[in-house]
Write a structure and sequence with these properties.
It contains 18 helices and 13 strands. The chain is α/β, with parallel strands linked by helices. The strands form four sheets. The protein has a six-stranded parallel beta sheet with strand order 1-9-6-4-2-3, with helices on both faces. Strands 5-8-7 form a three-stranded mixed beta sheet. The longest helix has 24 residues. The two termini are 46 Å apart.
C-alpha cells in the first residue's frame, strides 16, 4: 500500500441530527434562520406524503413556506435556476431540501446563487463560490447519496449555451447548515432504490478507504459504514419496512460513508462509472454498482495490506495477505450479485466498438484518479470496462456451472459438467472463451430462488440442510431429485442430493 501522510481538517454541517422521529425538529431549525423558507423536493416525494410531517413542524414553528417540487431525477441547471428565482420571489431566508441527492443538490446550489451575483457557470469547479449561500436544512429520503453532509452538488448543464454535460460545484460554502437524518423518511423506499443507493454508499466508503489522501479518522468512519452496509443492506432491500433496524443502520451508514469521503478521499470508482452513466443514461448508483468490484480488484495489488485488513474485518478472512484481500473482492462481488445489480455493459446497450470512447470518458475526473492507489490510464480503464462488458451472471456461474464433484443418475463424476448442465449449455445463446453469457431472465429466476421472502439471507450450499435456509414453501423432508442446485422448479433446500431412487420423475428445468 502507498504510504500516506496523516492530515485532517474536519468538514461537516454545523448541526448533524440523527434518529427516528427527528423530522419533527425541522421547524425549530428553520425558525433559527428566518421567517420564510422554500421547500425543495420532487413530485414523487410530495405525492408519497413525506412532506406532511415536515410541513406540520414548520407550521408549528410559525414559519411561512412555499414548495418547489420541480426537481428531476438527474437535476438540471434549468431546475436550479427556477428554484432560485422562486426563492428570491418569496424572500426566502433558508431552503429546505427533501429527497435524494437531486433535491439536496438543487437546494444547495440555489442557496448559493441567491448570495452570489455571479452566473452559475462561474460557480462550477472547485472553490469558486465567493460568498456562503443561504442556510440550508437537508433531509435525505434515501440511504446512499450522503448529499446532506457533502460540500458538493452535481447538475446537468441543459442551457442553450451550456456544456451539455454534468458540472460540479465543490466548495464548503454550499455545505448545509443543518442535516436531519430521520430513518423513518426512508422506511418505505422501494427495493430498487434501496439497493442501488446502498451500494453507492458502500462505494463512497470504499473509495475513501483506499484513497492515498485518506486518514485514520476517515477510515474509521468508512470501515464502520461498510460493515453496517454489508450486514444490513440485504435486509433493507428485501424486507423493507419490516426490517426497521436495517433501515436505521443503512441511514446511519450512508451518512458516515459520505462524511468519511468528504474528510478522506476519493478513488477511481466514480470516474470509471461516469462514462457508463453518461453514454447509456444509466442511473448514477446503478453505474457505480456495475464497476465497483472490478475497480476494487484492479487496485488490489497497490492496496493489498489495507484490503487484507478490511477482508478480515468484513468477512473474517484469514490466511495470507493476498488471500484475505481477494476475499474482500469476492465479498463485495457477492454483495452486488445478491442484490441483483450484476449487470454487464451489454445489458445496458453498450457496443464493443464503444470501449475506446468509454475508456476516454473514464479518465476525465482528475479529482478521483489522482488519489487512486494505482495509476489509471486509458488502457487500464479499457481493461476494467472490458471485464464489465464480458461479465457473466456470477450467480449462475457459481451455483450452477462451476465444475464440482457431483453424482448423476448413472455414475459419480469427480469433476466436469453434469448431463443437465450440458443440455442447458446447448440452449444458451453464446459461449465464449471468457465463459457463459446467461440470459437475464434465467439469471433473475436463479437470483430470486436464493432468497426467502421473509428473511434476506443467501441460501447455504452446505451438504446438511437447515430449517432457516429453506424456501418458505419447502417441505420438511426433501422430495425432489435435483442433481444441479437451483436449476429446477422444485422447492427443496439448496444442496446436493444423493442419487435418486430408480423411476422417480426428475424435476423440470427452467430452461
Amino acid at each position: 500500500m502507498i504510504p500516506r501522510d496523516e492530515h485532517l481538517d474536519f468538514v461537516s454541517p454545523d448541526n448533524l441530527i440523527f434518529g427516528r422521529g427527528t423530522v419533527t425538529e425541522t421547524g425549530v431549525h428553520c425558525a433559527q434562520n428566518g421567517d420564510t423558507v422554500l421547500l425543495v423536493t420532487d413530485p414523487g416525494i410530495r405525492n408519497a406524503g413525506l412532506l406532511d410531517p415536515i410541513v406540520s413542524s414548520i407550521e408549528t414553528a410559525g414559519v411561512d413556506y412555499e414548495v418547489f417540487d420541480g426537481v428531476e431525477p438527474d437535476p438540471k441547471v434549468s431546475n436550479t435556476l427556477e428554484c432560485a428565482d422562486l426563492a428570491g420571489d418569496i424572500g426566502a431566508d433558508a431552503l429546505v431540501g427533501i429527497g435524494g441527492g437531486s433535491s439536496m443538490d438543487v437546494a444547495k446550489t440555489a442557496a448559493a446563487l441567491l448570495t452570489n451575483e455571479s452566473p452559475i457557470e462561474k460557480l462550477f469547479g472547485r472553490h469558486n463560490v465567493p460568498t456562503e449561500g443561504l442556510p440550508t436544512v437537508l433531509l435525505p429520503t434515501t440511504s446512499g447519496t450522503g448529499a446532506e453532509v457533502s460540500p458538493a452538488s452535481v447538475l446537468f448543464d441543459d442551457r442553450a449555451n451550456g456544456t451539455g454535460e454534468k458540472e460540479g460545484i465543490i466548495d464548503p460554502a454550499i455545505l448545509s447548515h443543518t442535516a436531519i437524518i430521520d430513518p423513518d423518511l426512508s422506511m418505505h423506499l422501494p427495493a430498487a432504490l434501496t439497493k442501488s443507493t446502498g451500494l453507492d454508499a458502500f462505494a463512497h466508503a470504499m473509495g475513501s478507504y483506499m484513497a492515498t489522501t485518506s486518514n485514520t479518522f476517515a477510515d474509521a468512519l468508512c470501515v464502520q459504514a461498510m460493515e453496517l452496509i454489508e450486514e444490513h443492506l440485504r435486509d433493507a432491500t428485501f424486507m423493507g419496512a419490516d426490517a426497521p433496524e436495517a433501515r436505521e443502520k443503512m441511514a446511519l451508514a450512508a451518512t458516515m460513508a459520505m462524511l468519511g469521503r468528504v474528510n478522506g478521499g476519493k478513488a477511481a470508482i466514480h470516474s470509471i462509472a461516469y462514462g457508463v452513466q453518461a453514454l447509456y443514461d444509466v442511473p448514477h448508483a446503478v453505474a457505480i454498482s456495475m464497476v465497483l468490484p472490478e475497480v476494487v480488484e484492479y487496485n488490489q495489488p497497490a492496496s493489498t495490506e489495507a484490503f487484507a485488513r478490511l477482508g478480515t474485518r468484513l468477512y473474517e478472512a484469514d490466511g495470507s495477505r493476498r488471500g484475505r484481500a481477494q476475499t474482500l473482492v469476492e465479498g463485495i462481488t457477492r454483495l452486488r450479485d445478491d442484490l441483483g445489480l450484476d449487470q454487464s455493459l451489454r445489458s445496458v446497450g453498450a457496443r464493443e466498438e464503444e470501449m475506446d470512447e468509454l475508456a476516454e470518458l473514464a479518465v476525465h475526473s482528475d479529482r478521483h484518479l489522482e488519489p487512486n492507489p494505482r495509476p489509471v490510464e486509458v488502457s487500464d480503464a479499457k481493461t476494467i470496462l472490458r471485464s464489465v462488458w464480458w461479465r457473466l451472471s456470477t450467480v449462475m456461474w457459481r451455483t450452477c456451472f462451476k465444475p464440482v464433484s457431483i453424482s448423476t443418475h448413472t455414475t459419480t463424476r469427480k469433476s466436469g459438467w453434469t448431463p443437465r448442465a450440458k443440455s442447458i449449455l446447448k440452449k444458451l445463446p453464446t459461449i465464449t472463451s471468457r465463459g457463459i453469457l446467461v440470459p437475464d431472465d434465467i439469471s433473475e429466476k436463479i437470483r430470486e430462488s436464493r432468497w426467502r421472502s421473509d428473511r434476506a439471507r443467501p441460501y447455504s450450499t452446505q451438504s446438511q440442510p437447515r430449517e432457516d435456509i429453506r424456501r418458505p414453501h419447502a417441505p420438511a423432508t426433501p422430495s425432489h431429485c435435483c442433481t444441479i442446485p437451483l436449476m429446477c422448479s422444485c422447492s427443496g433446500p439448496i444442496r446436493r442430493l444423493p442419487r435418486p431412487k430408480r423411476g422417480r420423475q426428475r424435476c423440470k428445468p427452467w430452461v
